[in-house]
């Protein structure tokens, strides 16, 4: 599948959600779609799923426009954080309906995941707890086997054990059947190890699109006795520093792994902190 956004614009009455973004996604990978509230992530995913029309620019999937185009949308599954399914349907009916919607539907996987999440298929959507409804969304998203599967904060209400199960099956699924999986999340550190590519939206524009490895290789965390950390980071581009009881920890930008001295230790910077740094910087400039 080839997704190409070319100067893509989406304007609502009161906001311009996408301000002319250029983006290409072609490889089957797990993409992390990140950004602060209101950055435009959901708007982009809704345009890609054909729910809505762009206001300007172009969006193509395999050369076709997604809006109102079954040839595209049968290959794209978007699971939103809530209200994915009609409240009066039973879980069984939701799965049946989804099996008709998605040409690659995997009935056995849906049954396995129902078991895994311990979800009773006789229950109606309106009687599901928030976490159970999220689990149903995840089941549909993964069993759709859609070549483009988008999950927009799909874990609302899921407890830590269920989220861990979700990440595990997401990875297993991707490994057994690679496809474009776009995961939008605010729980960045919890899932950052899954991402192969990271796309950061900021105020309707794309701030960064990089492989997760590249992003990890451009920042380091140094920790140890406060005085040594201070000397070490002198002249370096420090993005965050914390101190406690005579020890310090500093995140700094560098393309080269630091050569350690004294009692200092080096590790990576959590992706969440990198995103905060990148989006704050942009915010400060705007
Ligand atoms: N249906 C709509 N009508 C009017 N404005 C909208 C609509 N949907 C989104 N917006 C506006 O577009 C901008 C982008 O919103 P969007 O939901 O795409 O951001 P997001 O990155 O998904 O945010 P979040 O992380 O909070 O979900 C925001 O200013 C939002 O208020």
Automatic annotation (TrEMBL):
Gene3D superfamilies tied to this protein: P-loop containing nucleotide triphosphate hydrolases
Keyword flag Aminoacyl-tRNA synthetase: no
Annotated keywords: ATP-binding, Nucleotide-binding, Transport
MF GO annotations: ATP binding; ATP hydrolysis activity
One Pfam family here: ABC_tran
UniProt cross-references to InterPro entries, sorted A to Z: AAA+_ATPase (IPR003593), ABC_transporter-like_ATP-bd (IPR003439), ABC_Transporter_VariousFunc (IPR051782), P-loop_NTPase (IPR027417)
Residues covered by the ABC transporter domain: 3-228
Protein name in the entry: ABC transporter ATP-binding protein
């Amino acid at each position: 599948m080839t997704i190409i956004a070319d100067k893509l614009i989406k304007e609502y009455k009161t906001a311009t959600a996408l301000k002319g973004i250029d983006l290409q996604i072609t490889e089957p990978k797990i993409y992390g779609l990140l950004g602060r509230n209101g950055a435009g992530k959901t708007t982009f995913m809704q345009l890609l799923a054909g729910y809505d029309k762009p206001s300007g620019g172009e969006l193509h999937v395999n050369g076709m426009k997604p809006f109102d185009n079954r040839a595209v949308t049968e290959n794209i599954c978007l699971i939103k954080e809530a209200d994915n399914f009609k409240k009066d349907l039973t879980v069984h009916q939701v799965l049946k309906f989804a099996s008709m919607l998605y040409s690659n539907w995997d009935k056995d996987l849906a049954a396995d995941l129902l078991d895994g999440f311990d979800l009773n298929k006789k229950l109606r959507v309106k009687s599901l707890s928030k976490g159970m409804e999220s689990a149903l969304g995840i089941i549909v998203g993964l069993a759709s086997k859609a070549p483009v599967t988008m999950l927009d904060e799909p874990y609302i209400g899921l407890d830590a054990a269920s989220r861990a199960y979700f990440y595990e099956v997401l990875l297993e699924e991707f490994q057994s059947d690679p496809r474009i999986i776009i995961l939008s999340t605010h729980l960045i550190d919890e899932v950052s190890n899954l991402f192969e590519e990271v796309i950061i939206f900021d105020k309707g524009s794309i701030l960064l699109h990089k492989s997760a490895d590249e992003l990890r290789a451009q920042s380091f965390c140094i920790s140890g006795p406060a005085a040594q950390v201070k000397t070490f980071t002198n002249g370096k581009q420090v993005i965050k520093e914390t101190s406690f009881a005579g020890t310090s920890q500093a995140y700094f930008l560098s393309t080269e792994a630091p050569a350690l001295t004294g009692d200092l230790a080096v590790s990576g910077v959590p992706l969440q902190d990198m995103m905060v740094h990148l989006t704050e910087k942009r915010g400060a400039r705007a």
